[in-house]
Amino acid sequence: MSDQTVPVLSLRRIAKHYVSGESVVRALDGVSLDIMPGELVGVVGPSGSGKSTMLLIAGLLETPTEGEVFVSGRLVSSPDANLDELRDFRRRNIGFVFQKANLLPFLTAAENVAIALEIDDVPARAALAYATELLEDVDLSHRIHNLPARLSGGEQQRVAVARALANDPTLLLADEPTAALDAVRGRQVIEQFRAIARAREAAVVVVTHDQRALEMFDRIIELVDGKLASIRTPGALEGQVI
Amino acid sequence: MDAGDTSKGIAVNLSFKDIQYRFARFLLTVAGVGFLVTASVGMVGLYRGIIADALLVIDTIGADLWVVQGDRQGPFSEGSAVPLDLDARVESLGNVYNVRRFRQFSYQFLHNGKQSRAAITTLDYPKDNGSWLNLVYGRSIGAAHFEVVADVSSGLHVGETIHMGKDEYRVVGLTAGMVDASGDAMMFITLNDALAISSQRTSEEILLARNAAQAGNQNSGASSSAGRISAVLVSLDAATDPGTVRDAMMNWGDVNVLTQADQSDLLLNQRLWRLRLQILAFTAVLLVVMAIIISLIIYTMTIEKLHQIAMLKLIGARNALIVSMIAQQAAMIGVGGFAFGLLLSNLIFPYFPRRIVMTPEDLGLLFAAVCIVSAGSSLFGISRALSVKAQEVLS
């Protein structure tokens, strides 16, 4: 059970600048936010607004140019952080889901989930047993032994969700997870995230362009030109301008 | 189980499952590498085969010294003709154990309606009954005339009769792997029969020779070499210094005396020098091509997996897992390709027209080369794979 008062993810004055020739591209510019346990947060904004960059920094896949990243109250990343040394922390605390499921084509659904556990030194048999449970949780008990090529897009995405949950992460980051799915399947995936956030008290951050899904989030964060433009709840007519 | 062991276990699992998933492709890759290995084994084996064929008579006939025409390096490197009775002169020397007269020449004969080619090689019967032949069917020469022992590559069979010169010869035995430096099957007959065949002349030749004799010209080229032999082979008593006997014969002035080592050197470094160099050059080119293609196959295989490698890194895979996975697949392709190439070589090379000699040393070196190429190319792949960032899974 996580501490309900400590944010799972805290970004403090995060900036990411890319130097291109003589010009500097400010992908993120002083973003600060907190995401609490059990919270499902949507991140929206036009292309190039810095959504994916924020996700990469929050997921410890990129270091910020400025600012600090805290996970469950622990300072884990800053401009001088060594990402290779954060590999084990990332594996145990953060799960990822992307637009494409990115499943290994030669492993079955269960093996694709189990591999995340085996990499964490869980014995193969135990890993496979837990992977089966996770797949049952996402209603794929009938697809456990199927290769990805035999699964629909929605089913593949649910396997990716199960894989992201394998190490029981406190933070789940999803980048456009519904973009390749139809409305019904997309809604099912967001509902799955909602259930995960509640049942596991995990923070789930979903970058999305899908306007139909916005009402399902607890909060919606809008980025524009690398800056936090607003944080609002789905029912509110006007966002809280930062 | 420690983390390293777990990584190895997963890597083996991933490597095998990946191969299993694309099994047909893996088989084709292994077959491709295997064919390259086969071609390399063939080129190296052809080189060895040509040397072995060329040295066959020299190495097996059991002569310590070859007495040939004066100032000549015969009979293999250049022509040589010595008198028929030279053997008596040699036999009169001390420490000589055995003396045989030798002649070898190419001959075309009709077999099953087709012209066939053979290297007629003489046995100085009854001194030499062909005990040094690699006989696989029938028997050796047992009569002074009209019997022949042929190599199986001639296509002849025991009991068959062939027409040579003016006579019919019966095949009484078959040898295996006995061909001359050109790859022509050897046919062994008695020296007297060989002289009869080589001295056969047309009526016009006889007429011309008779006219020349009447005109006082005794050096008619057509008949001068027909009654001569190429060399006299000398076997010495045990513990005899070949140099002493050689010096004694060289003092006669009309002969040259070559040791077995001299003959080998003449064949390999003079007569076959260009051919050997050419085959070696082709072999080197083929080995380079093999190395490049195997490298490309393994490197491309790794590049195709970069997205999966990025995904594995994203879910926290250690570098050891990535390295093991690539190295194992490279090893399976290398070892599998070599095994397939070796199997194919053993299946098809016995049917090739020239002998392909596969020595354990050459195969060992080739295997080492394949391993080094596989390891080297997998190192390139590994260095590329390790430079992949986990976020590339988004690309």
Number of helices of chain A: 6
Rg of chain A over CA atoms, rounded to whole Å, is 18 Å
Number of domains of chain A: 1
Question: Which geometry of chain B do the CA atoms define?
Answer: elongated
Sequence stretches where pLDDT stays below 50 over 5 or more residues of chain A: none
Structural class of chain A: alpha/beta
Q: What characteristic shape of chain A results from the CA principal axes?
A: globular
What does the average pLDDT of chain A come to? 88
- How many β-strand stretches of chain A? 11
State the CATH architecture of chain A: 3-Layer(aba) Sandwich
End-to-end CA span of chain B = 35 Å
Spans of at least 5 consecutive residues with low confidence of chain B: none
Helix and strand string of chain A, N-terminal first?
EEEHEEHEHHHEHEEEE
Please state roughly what percent of the residues of chain A sit in beta strands, choosing from under 5%, 5-15%, 15-25%, 25-35%, 35-45% or over 45%: 25-35%
Distance from N terminus to C terminus of chain A (CA atoms, Å) equals 32 Å
> How can the largest sheet of chain A be summarized?
7 strands, mixed
Major sheet characteristics of chain B: 7 strands, mixed
Spatial order of strands in the largest sheet of chain A: 6-7-8-3-9-10-11
